[in-house]
Design goal:
mainly alpha, about 80% helix
Length: about 270
């Protein structure tokens, strides 16, 4: 009879131990985020976390459709602190479950960092694009200054040419016909060259204006990219705060569980 009771006690103890382990494993394996926004991780963050799930621009392959970038929708393991509190009966088992969830949080943080690094890389590339655009803008400003200076000098040249032609006409009586015709031909040639240079200048001015207008369109695109990246970073910051909150909650629970275990061991020693 004693042997039967002993065997029963051993089996019962094994069942309790196995149940505890399975329950801890259940905390990790039962739920995968699909995406993280749809899971109730913390009441204060529910509205923000559901925002992406309600976004119609989410592809079936888990990518969010941006105008300039494709963002992968974060998928995290669930961390249900309140869920394990409901089964808080054995402090040592509870401590084990808390530590399991802390490992899950660390895994989620590592996953989150990969998304944050992606956004930072895009932001770095965007800064280079903005720098290049700024250099183009400065180049076009210098080009415009040179064009204005060129036009000003050409205007002076044309003014002097016309003055010289006018003064020459006053002296034509002193020269032969072929000398007059030759000198007038020189004036005409110089004036044609000035007019040709003016036409080229007009073309360069139109090209410059076109390039400057294109800069405005490019700047608009870069501003939109900057906004899209900023929104992505803001979204990831929401996930970061949520994981940080879980980490702090678990740290408190771990500390409390260890304290309870220490008290229990101290009380047990006093009884002996």
């Amino acid at each position: 009879m004693k042997s039967i009771l002993f065997n029963f006690a051993v089996v019962f103890g094994f069942i309790l131990s196995a149940t505890g382990v399975l329950r801890a494993q259940y905390v990790v394996d039962t739920v995968r985020y699909q995406p993280v926004d749809t899971i109730r991780t913390a009441p204060e963050n529910d509205r923000q976390l559901r925002k992406t799930a309600e976004n119609p621009d989410v592809y079936q392959n888990g990518n969010t459709a941006g105008k300039y970038y494709k963002w992968e929708t974060p998928v995290f393991d669930m961390v249900d602190v309140d869920g394990i509190k409901q089964h808080k009966t054995d402090n040592e088992q509870y401590l084990y479950e808390v530590e399991v969830l802390e490992k899950v949080v660390n895994k989620n943080r590592k996953e989150l960092k990969s998304y944050q690094d992606q956004a930072k890389d895009y932001a770095k590339v965007l800064r280079n694009e903005q720098k290049n655009l700024k250099e183009k803008r400065n180049f076009y400003k210098e080009d415009e200054k040179l064009l204005k200076k060129e036009n000003k000098l050409r205007g002076r040249e044309l003014k002097l040419l016309r003055k010289s032609r006018k003064e020459f006409k006053k002296k034509t009586d002193e020269l032969s016909d072929w000398q007059v015709q030759d000198r007038l031909a020189q004036f005409d040639d110089r004036e044609r060259r000035i007019e040709a240079a003016q036409e080229k200048w007009d073309m360069k001015r139109e090209t410059l204006k076109y390039n400057v207008d294109k800069l405005a369109d490019q700047q608009k695109i870069l501003d939109e990219k900057d906004y899209e990246i900023s929104e992505r970073i803001r979204q990831l910051d929401v996930y970061q705060r949520d994981q940080d909150l879980k980490s702090k909650q678990l740290a408190v629970e771990r500390k409390q569980a260890k304290l309870e275990i220490k008290k229990a061991k101290a009380a047990l020693k006093q009884k002996k």
